Amino acid sequence: MLRYVLIFLIDLTAAACAFMAAYLTSHGYPWALNVPALEEKLAGFALAAAFAFAVFSPYRVSWRYVSTPDLVTILKSALLAVAVYTIGAFLLTRGDNVPRSVPVLTLIYMTVAMVGMRISYRLALEYSRRLPKTSGARRAAGHPILLCGLSDKAESFIRASRRRPGSTFWVAGIIDDSRINLGRTVQGVTVLGSLKDLKAVLEKLHGQGIDVKELIVTEPSPSRKRLMHILTQASSYGMKVLQIPGVTDMEAVTSKNILEPRPIELSDLLLRSEVNIKPDEAISLIRDRVVLTTGAGGSIGSELCRQIAAFAPRRLIITDSSEFLLYTIDTELRDKYPDLDIVTRIVDVRDAERVARIFSRIEPDIVFHAAALKHVPLTEDNPLEAIKTNVLGTRNVADAARASGVSSFVLISTDKAVNPSSIMGATKRAAEAYCQALDMICDKTRFKTVRFGNVLGSSGSVTLLFQNQIAAGGPVTVTHPDIVRYFMTIPEAISLILYASAHSDLHKTGRGKVIVLDMGEPVRIVDLAERMIQLAGLKPYVDIDIVFTRLRPGEKLHEELFHAHEVREGHTEEGYVVASPRVIEWHLLNRTFDEIAACAAREDRARAIALLSHAIPETRNGATTPAAPASLPAKKAETPRGS
C-alpha cells in the first residue's frame, strides 16, 4: 500500500511539472511565472490529475513489466486530467489566462513524463541483466543457445529468460528461414542466418569464443515434418534440440512456466496426422455407467482407466493379476479423482470362477478387456501361457460378461492378429474370433474388437529398449534394416478406442465386425532409432552406433492391419475403419477351446498349438511352432541410413 501511495505522489508531481512546462513553453521564461493566479491553476490541475488517477489507477501499473495496455491506461489518465481541468477552468473563470496550447502541451508532457519514467526503469533493469561482452561474463551467465524462428514466442522467451533468476543459458542468436529477417534484432538478439546456414552461423560464433550446443525451436506451430528437418540439421552438428510448447498444449498451459523449453518427444515426430475427435460420444458411453477394465495395470489398461475416470462413470472397477501395477494405478486414480467410486480387485483372467464371481457381484455395464501377454519372443518360448491368458482368459471374461448381461464388451486386439506368424498373434486372432462369434449370437451384449498397432512407450516397447541402450552409450540394436511398424501414442490410441466403441453403438455397426484404428503410415524401426539418437543430441553411427541382429522368433518384417479377405466398409473420418473378418461358428470354436484347455492343463504343448492353428486358418504354416533361435553375431550397419 505504501508503494502505491509513493507512486501516486510521483505521478502527481510529474503531472504538476508537465502543467508548469506547458506554461513555460507557451509564455516563455520568466513571463510564465507572472501568469495571474498560477498557483491556484496548478493546484486545480493537481486535483484534476488526482481524480483521473483515482479513476484509472495508473499507479498500479508495474514499472518492471510495463506494456502497451499499461501505456494506454496512462494516456487515458492524462486525457481525463486535462479534460477535467479545462472544463473546470472554463466553467469557473471562462478560461482566463489558459491559452489553447496549454492543455495540449500538458497532455503531451504529462504522458511523456509518466511513460518515460516507467520505460526508463524497465530498460535500466533489463540492461543490468544483459550479458556483458566479456567471455568471463558469458561463462558466468551459463551456456549459449540459438533460437530457431523469429516469432512472438522468441521475443517472449528472450524477455522472460532475462528476467528469470538463476538462468543457466543466454541467447546468442536467432536463425530464421525468411531472408527479409536476416540482420533484424529482437530484444537485442540478432537473426544470424537461416537453418541451411547453421554451419556458418556456428563457425562464426565459435570464432567469437561462443560454443553453442542447444537449439530451441520458437517457430509458431511447426509441423512434424518441419520438426524432423530441424532435428536432422541440428543433430548433424552435435546440437540438442528443444522446443517451446504452444499455448494450446495442455501441459504448457498447466505448467508454472509456459515458456520453459522442453525436449522434443518422439511422438512429435511421427509422420501421421493426429485424429481430432469430439469426446461427446465417448462421454455418453461412460458417464453414469459401471465400467470394468481387465489388465488395468498395463500401459494400455492404465491409460484406459485414466480416460474413463475423466468421463465420470458411476463406478470404475479396475482388475489385474499384478499386485504392484494394480496398486500403482489405484493410488493414482484415487489421488486424482477422490470422489469417484473405484473398486480394485486382484483378478487373473485365467481363473474362470473368480472372473464369473466378480461379474455376478458387480454387474458392470461396460467391459474393456486389455489383459493379455503381448511380448512376441516370450510368448514364443512360453506358448501355453499365452494360450491360457489370451485365448482361455478372453473366453472366461467374455462368457462372464454375457452371463451378467453386460451391454458392451470391448476386446483390445493387435495388428499381429492379422496373418499371425507368432503364438501371440495367433492367440489374439483366436480371441478376436471368439468375440466375433459371441457378437453374432448375443442379443443383449455387443462384443466389439478394436485392433491397432504399436503404441509409443508401452511396457516392452522398442522405444524403451532404445532409450536404455542410448543412455548406456550404445550400440542400439535393430533386428532388421527393413523392419517397419505402425505407431501411435497411447493417449491417442485410447481416445480412439473409446470414441470408436461409442460411435459404433450409436451408428449400429454390424455384428461380427472388427474396428481397426487409423494408424497412418508405417515407420521404419531403423529411422526410429536414428531419431531417438538425434533427440538425445547425438549423431547416429558416430556417437551411437546402430547394429542389426536378426528377426526374432515369430517376428515379421511388415505388420498388417487387415487380412486380404477382410471386407473393409470404407474409411471413416473418425479415425477408424470397420472390417468384416471371417466369422467362425461359436459352438465349433467353443468346442475347440475346450480341447485346447484340456491340452494346456496337461502341458501338451504340441497338441495345443496344433488345435490353435486348426482353429485359426489364417496362421501361416509352421509359424506358430516355436523354435530355439540359433545365435547370430550382430551385424553392424555398413553405411549410415538417411532419414
Mean pLDDT: 80
Oligomeric status: single chain
Query: Superfamily at the CATH H level of the largest domain?
Result: NAD(P)-binding Rossmann-like Domain
- Portion of residues within helices: 40-55%
Structural class: alpha/beta
> How many beta-strand elements?
23
Number of helices, counting only DSSP H or I runs of 4 residues or more: 21
Poorly predicted segments: 131-140, 247-256, 621-643
Name of the CATH architecture of the largest domain = 3-Layer(aba) Sandwich
CATH-defined fold name of the largest domain: Rossmann fold
How far apart lie the N and C ends?
61 Å
Shape: elongated
Strand content: 5-15%
Give a short account of the largest sheet: 9 strands, mixed
- Strand adjacency order, main sheet: 10-9-8-11-12-13-18-22-21
Q: What's the number of structural domains?
A: 3
What Rg is obtained from the alpha carbons, in whole angstroms? 35 Å
Level-1 CATH class name of the largest domain: Alpha Beta
Brief write-up:
With 643 residues, this protein is α/β, with parallel strands linked by helices.
Structure description:
The protein has 643 residues and is α/β, with parallel strands linked by helices. The protein folds into three domains: 128 residues, no CATH class; 130 residues, NAD(P)-binding Rossmann-like Domain (Rossmann fold); 253 residues, Rossmann fold. Helices cover 47% and strands 15% of the residues. The strands form five sheets. It has a nine-stranded mixed β-sheet with strand order 10-9-8-11-12-13-18-22-21, with helices on both faces. Strands 3-4-2-1-5-6-7 form a seven-stranded mixed β-sheet, with helices on both faces. It has a three-stranded mixed β-sheet with strand order 15-20-23. It is elongated and about 115 Å long.
